[in-house]
Write a structure and sequence with these properties.
Chain lengths: 257, 257, 257, 257, 257, 257
């Protein structure tokens, strides 16, 4: 985080003449997408939005001046967490429309490439559908990824818990590095997992509710989390993401209509 | 802002057991709604979102523990500003769906009353449609207002410019009180208004682009803005809003299905 | 009403060669929009449609040959009157689609400007959304107004009741001037208002049902209505509307695609 | 037309207490549906709406007090006439939604049976889809017919032209009986038919434009029309319709939800 | 069925270079559309899909190399059969979208004419709506027919039952000729018709469930069916269809956008 | 394939009394979903549909009598193959609606569990969205998987090509085992891959067209395919699928509304 003002390339913090200027050099927009959903008794519900937002800021810093950052999409696809208070879920159609409107508006201002930076696994399918849908409607290039999936090996190396993936050792570690203020450190406890979890070993989409997996909404043992683990995971993902996006910027563009 | 932790009643900052607890006393959710759109050469484009978010926090503080606050809806209806770089506009249908999903989710968690706190005039009609649409689909009570419209007299008394309503003396004053960090004070300049403005005196909906009104996207003379004016406007609106919401909480509820 | 055949510029009364001819001179279409909803025990439920239709005819007469008039949209947005028998309400999405189809068809025939003449306050938000939606999809100019809002001062001067706005002194006066046949004069009685009405002083959108305001569906004291009051209100609105539309016809058009 | 006030059972002409009363005896609503489309150089474009409206009034009179009549749906499905000035076409989806809203509203007021009285062949498929769609969503009975299809034999017997079906001898005859004011008698001329017409003998849906069939938008020889022919056709259809609706009222109702 | 490989012109059986080649000569695509719905106790539920598919293959053979055949649409509009196990019904909107996507994709590959070959009467209205909808969105020619409606006279001559139209003498005869494998010959029995059937003599759309017509889901007396009757009906329809499609291929095309 | 009549549990081959009987024992429906899209110069375009259909039949055989099989969904999500002739793509929304209608209909007949058997990777995201969407609307259990993803280790062990995943050694091997009739053996050739392929190593969603990856639409070297490899892959996936589905049938059901 070596930038004097890391927020300058965020559209929400810029005036229109500043955007007009920045857009001359920018070659893509980064769109951070999170969720408002339960993350166990020790993480605030904005966990995924915060992580996506911070990750996008770090990535934007590395890519400067090639990328602008949109306001974070703070709501995601969370039907499976609705049995825990406070979770808010969009219908997939709403999120696809929302992203289509954002991309379409910025395309009008001259941008042709868009990177959907996802902080919540539950959004993955909908973002895939958004990519298929939007690129059929507009002559743009789209790239979408869940940023942690870019650090699979680092995660395997760092995480000690048997299970992870939500309100877990990995997520708390990331937050310790990027957004410690939303952890309730004194409330951290192991996930109260349930038998159904055996299902997780199959790569299938099983439409279950998260309280069928875990009583307290958490997985694994977040007590093993550390800022160091988080730093390794995030920085690995960041290096990968930077490379991918720079490659992405080389791809040929479809003709503007 | 007399609260030790003014953000505690924001859903994004709470864990699910904290929400579970708070929702026992809460009788409504406040949903702040802004926009990402040009506000002249001297206000960052998140102007309306920031103001709605801050206003909702101040109002939540007064209503505590009766209100919870959702993550801010950072995008609004801004087709009329699309000729200025950086503006992002949703289609009205997208915003109605988004609000319907938010209300529906929180209704599942036990809330029955929802207050749409609007910071952007361009959203007004869509929020009206959202009220009509959502209350037909769900047995909930909805209240929507543009918060500055609650302080019409104070605004008339405080504002000296001939014109106001966007990137203006009134808006800069409000920001000086609530979010001075997004003003570029040294760039403040008068609105470069155009003849078309004569139309504004009729209470009609004329689908024009904002650059038909003003060259630099601003109205009136924001150099006359002051934190004091902002405080009077905001605090007046706040007192009105508190009274309205408290009355609203007395209204009978429709039967849950 | 000084025209020999006031209905000639209504599209429903014209053959296609007559339209072909008229469209050479016409520069806009007027689209009257009303409702089918309760108007107390003394006005037929087509009140708003009749008033919008008559007003459009009077305005068309003044603008002749610059305006054509479409068939009246007889259904509007009336969820708040659904507790009274006979009320029919459209979903806002239906009305937006309907208006989009009408505008799109006439745009195909060469018209580029459209005036939505609204006779029902409950339609206002949806018409605003229609303006935002349609002008994003088609290169047209749109103007929308509730015609009585053009005569605010005259109404203030003429109306004696404490409350008005629906099935009231103002509306009966207008009908006495424009469509006396749908008044049941011998049934006129004061509105049976309820306490909730105190809310009405705030400029907020409170999604309530009309029977929470008034027992008989009426407001104020319609016994004070007169044809003279109606004439003043309607003729004032008419003069304003004519001026506004003539100005509107001067606005530059977007390029046809 | 033996009723003193034939319009009394029209919802648009009734106050809410009158509807409340009438609905106690009424067992169905009649919904007249027409079009705004070219009908050759000698019939005004509201031809189908007028005929549907008049037919519904005549039918309502016979069924009194069993039927209420809704405001006429003045717009229909007319893409095939769009090459003639003045035609306005809805998308099928819009019309289905509009009818769904009308039926849903009246179902809320206690009606369970609905008769779609169609005056325009081009609406037939969409009304079929409306029946399939609405009865899946609501526990109602629906009946739809193009009223002239109930008088096929009478039409065969009365009409002398080789072709008919639009702006034709049959339609002008009907209008002479039901709505002579929208005929331009001195403009009546034969249809300027084209070779493509051979297609008409197959019962297929060929998505063609009407100007591929006929130069002036008319078919056959409307000069052979007469009020007497119209009376026979209309009265035959009316007798059939009355019988069908009375049978329809005997059909068992699905359970209200 | 004189072709060595009658399936060669089916898109599902071709590689992309084979399609690339065939599309140079092909001037239309045939789209067979059926249903998955009850057909009495003696016909499998794919009856309509099988018949449409076979008919399209026979027609494609006659038209070779002018027509390509798409995969059969195996689901149709069957709300009226939902009271019999196994029936699956699409909403009309789903089928319209599905057909729009198929037509749009093949239009991208260079085809401009599309023939919807319908095997199920319940699809007729939705296919009509599909024609109106798709040809408004894309510059294509569309033709739709229920193939048995092309053989009305042959059917009248061949069929002896009083009633037919579903799981009947006519349908079993057709299957004996085209797809005998889905008949349970030893289960054939007369339709167990009910009184409601009197309604069938009116050309009206009465939204009834099929079990209101017949206890066992069948009509008439299928025991009178024969392969010979089926051959006459199918071959008559085939000859008509070939002629119609060849004429259709002569119709002028709209300009590609 | 040890069953005398492997097609008996396919809904399309059953009469309604047979379904009525079978549904008493059946505890789920299998829904095979494929695509119509290019698969290189040596596989017919129905490749994915055939494989999904055959796999579902084999699985149904193992699960008999617990599973019924619906007609195959022959169209999928293939925008990335549209630059190759013959490909047909649905919009994701269409496929979600289609699956929702199928599930909804069978739920009406008493089934509560549904297994989406996917033969095409491009469908994965849309099926995930379908699961999230449908289970929010209906009280059903849904399970979705791309069947080859259940045999990841077997595939790694069997496949020798560097790349695979489409029109490849793996897919041809599977077809040799399940549907050899759609392979053009004499046309098999290596994929003509392009540099862009380096992207494939990242787990990201990059909205590219398949002709950016490969000139002839194929990947890897399908000449190394064999029936034995196919058998191992398919039988491994089958054993996994059977186990997963049997576990799935143990999951608790949501209450029927």
């Amino acid at each position: 985080m070596n930038k004097s003002n890391p927020d300058l390339f965020k559209l929400e913090n810029m005036t229109w003449p500043e955007v007009e200027n920045a857009i001359k050099k920018a070659e893509c927009a980064l769109i951070p997408i999170g969720s408002q959903e339960q993350h166990g008794p020790y993480i605030a519900e904005s966990c995924d939005s915060r992580r996506a937002e911070k990750f996008a800021a770090l990535l934007g810093d590395k890519l400067d001046p090639l990328a602008l950052i949109t306001p974070t999409v703070s709501y995601g696809i969370s039907p499976h967490h609705m049995n825990f208070p406070g979770t808010i879920t969009l219908s997939p159609q709403t999120l696809v429309s929302l992203l289509g409107d954002i991309v379409g508006s910025l395309h009008d201002h001259g941008l042709d490439r868009f990177v959907l930076i996802n902080g919540h696994g539950g959004n993955d399918d909908t973002l895939g559908v958004a990519v298929d849908t939007i690129r059929t409607e507009l002559p743009v290039r789209l790239l979408a990824f869940k940023y942690t999936s870019l650090a699979a090996e680092a995660i395997e190396a760092e995480v000690d818990s048997d299970f992870y993936g939500h309100a877990c050792e990995r997520e708390v570690s990331e937050l310790m590095y990027m957004a410690p203020e939303i952890i309730r450190e004194n409330r951290i406890e192991p996930g109260e997992e349930k038998k159904l979890l055996s299902f997780k070993q199959h790569p299938v989409n099983l439409g279950v509710d998260f309280d069928e997996y875990t009583e307290n909404g958490a997985l694994g043992d977040a007590r093993q989390a550390s800022r160091e683990k988080g730093e390794k995971i995030v920085e690995t993902a960041l290096a990968e993401a930077e490379e991918i996006v720079r490659d992405f910027l080389q791809l040929e563009l479809p003709d503007r209509n």
